[in-house]
Amino acid sequence: MKVTESVLDAIGDTPLIKLRAASQATGCAIYGKAEFMNPGGSVKDRAALAIIRDAEASGALKPGGTIVEGTAGNTGIGLALVANALGYRTVIVIPDTQSDEKKSMLRLQGAELIEVPAVPYSNPDNYVKYSGRLAEELAAKGQNAIWANQFDNVANLRGHEETTGPEIYDQLGGRIDGFICAAGTGGTLAGVGRALKARKPDVKIGLADPMGASLYSYYKTGELKSSGSSITEGIGQGRITANVALAPVDFAYQITDEEALPILFDLAAREGLLLGGSSAINIAGAIRLARELGPGKTIVTILCDSGARYASKLYNPAFLREKGLPLPAWLA
Ligand code: PMP
């Protein structure tokens, strides 16, 4: 194991874990990139580090400056840890629907937390727009405040293009046929997709879209349309963000919670992997892509964060019953 000078060097270089049941069911080798093992506990540590390093390099972020962001939680946790390590302040705007576990983690890290009602992007009070406005207001008052703007800041995808993607390729010695994940900002999908296509042009890239998101319909018909909803957090995009726009997508699948959650509960009980809801959508997507490409292929997806972050929701029998979602025997 490596020895690092700071927590920042401990971001990335995560293991690839073979997903046994998913591999057996498809005759493929399906691997999950264990992003829950990052110091902040999610795939978003990488984007946070890349965005902050980019803002330092451009001169926008100065010593002691403030980073403002609208986030479902994980990006905020990543930004707060990188900011703490480098002497910056963070102000995080989060929709009030996100899990209490993520909010208390943000408070523990000393981020200033602003909870706002969850309203669509078209509403000016949407958390993303709110955070952009707040950064402008602080800057207008003479503070050195930047807006991380993870959705439309392509430093996000570059972080994955320079680290996550090359790591996956190298870990498998280039023996990879497909990669698939869901999109929040689209940074992971675009960054990993681009890195893999650059190294191996015939690698197939898939999007796993939860219900309530619009990208599946966009890739199928050219129109952004959504239906239904999902209890997953951090994913499900309704517009073509700057990061999504650069994703080289070959296949798109729409995944319901009913399809994804049993896979998640099974992984916890039988493979020792307790994961968050977006990982479930990703793994269900990997199984669809494996069936599309046929047996013998090697497919990779992302294990975005830990189930511990959703103990009060995804792994709470009362919550699942209320939503009419499948409840595993071991949890009941
Ligand atoms: N899973 C979780 C749990 C997340 O928090 C996020 C980011 N919001 C994602 C997946 C999606 O990652 P990306 O923003 O790179 O599309």
Automatic annotation (TrEMBL):
<dbReference type="Pfam" id="PF00291">
    <property type="entry name" value="PALP"/>
</dbReference>
<dbReference type="InterPro" id="IPR001926">
    <property type="entry name" value="TrpB-like_PALP"/>
</dbReference>
<dbReference type="InterPro" id="IPR050214">
    <property type="entry name" value="Cys_Synth/Cystath_Beta-Synth"/>
</dbReference>
<keyword id="KW-0808">Transferase</keyword>
<dbReference type="InterPro" id="IPR036052">
    <property type="entry name" value="TrpB-like_PALP_sf"/>
</dbReference>
<feature type="domain" description="Tryptophan synthase beta chain-like PALP">
    <location>
        <begin position="8"/>
        <end position="305"/>
    </location>
</feature>
<dbReference type="GO" id="GO:0006535">
    <property type="term" value="P:cysteine biosynthetic process from serine"/>
</dbReference>
<keyword id="KW-0028">Amino-acid biosynthesis</keyword>
<protein>
    <submittedName>
        <fullName>Cysteine synthase A</fullName>
    </submittedName>
</protein>
<comment type="pathway">
    <text>Amino-acid biosynthesis.</text>
</comment>
<dbReference type="InterPro" id="IPR001216">
    <property type="entry name" value="P-phosphate_BS"/>
</dbReference>
<keyword id="KW-0809">Transit peptide</keyword>
<dbReference type="GO" id="GO:0016765">
    <property type="term" value="F:transferase activity, transferring alkyl or aryl (other than methyl) groups"/>
</dbReference>
<keyword id="KW-0663">Pyridoxal phosphate</keyword>
